[in-house]
Design goal:
By secondary structure, this protein is mainly beta. The chain is 0% helix and 50% strand.
């Protein structure tokens, strides 16, 4: 689910020109994410000072959050779900039949 994606998560692109590539989320804004090494575009910079030269730089642009999914570093997709206990909420996924905590969402009570 895309609402669980945060900064520093590993994601895999599932559609578009970079389909299948894996990267780390650098930034998230509403329904868009910037992923390291994904959707790279060239930007032309003008000369702003007498000493500085004009140049062309490569910049990662944002992609829609629906075009990525959570995965581990090897590229295996993670299917997460919310698990609620009396004291906390966790984001959990199954790994080899065992439940593994991906991230703590929040603590409940005192």
């Amino acid at each position: 689910m895309s609402k669980w994606i945060r900064k520093d998560d590993y994601v895999q692109v599932i559609t578009g020109n970079d389909k299948g590539k894996i990267g780390v989320v650098l930034m998230r804004q509403k329904n868009r994410v910037v992923v390291q090494g994904i959707n790279i575009r060239k930007k032309h910079l003008k000369r702003t000072q007498q000493e500085q030269k004009q140049q062309i730089i490569e910049v990662e642009r944002s992609i829609d959050i629906s075009n990525v999914r959570l995965c581990n570093q090897e590229g295996k997709p993670l299917y997460v779900k919310k698990e609620v206990s009396k004291t906390k909420k966790d984001l959990v996924y199954r790994d080899g039949g065992k439940k593994t905590v991906y991230r703590n969402l929040k603590k409940i009570g005192k």
